[in-house]
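Action item from last week, closing it out:
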Amino acid sequence: MCRIAAYLGQTIRLDQFLTRPSHSLVVQSYAPQELVYAKVNADGYGFGWYNSEQQPCNYRSPMPIWSDPNLQNLGRGLESSLWLGFIRSATEGSSVNHENTQPFYDDELLFMHNGYIENFNSQVRREISNYLSNDIRAAIQGTTDSEYLFALLREILNNDKELSIEDACSQMQKLLASWLGNDTKALLNFTISDGELLYAIRHGINHDSPSLYYTTDDDLFPDAQLIASEPLTSMGLWQPVPDHHIVILSNDDPPELVPL
């Protein structure tokens, strides 16, 4: 299990999003409040944004977020109107390294996953791998279920260029449910961006969904919309994303909730 957060709004510095809130991802790394299968998130962290040419970028480190000497300078030097943040609690048996640290990206999308797939290596990894084209399979660098899920989403989108991201996510969940059967558990919270919108999914198969909240009304982030595994502040009107729903955030429209 991990913790994730995302921001969409006016241009702000990274530190305002990642380190300043009273219950920031830094605090959630050592004092999470709603983490189910771990006590800390000390197995790496990362963040993503889009540059001036609307290309996705990321910074990833396998060290705990509180111990990275680069973070202070990055926090006060980087600015963006869209941020994704991630802290990791590695699934047992999963290596802690750069390749296994999120967020992931391709030419267009930024992607984060909070959760896990039970029996991934013995049951589901092969199903996903067989579904993938050679090019997408070859681009996988790490060993996590999260990166394979991102590859699966990209494959679905590549197979139908007209498919929306929310419909691709729904199709992905149906594929996973067919491979998992009635007993294998999967926790499947995702945050995805195409540089304009934020998509966040709260979902579980054969298990309760992990926690996920959104807000459009937080005093620390005026005129912004945010997603987080746990509310980043006590000031905002944070609302839980309903189970088995996608919430779509846009600078131009109120949040849209779509059932999977």
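Closing note: The chain has one domain: 2-259.
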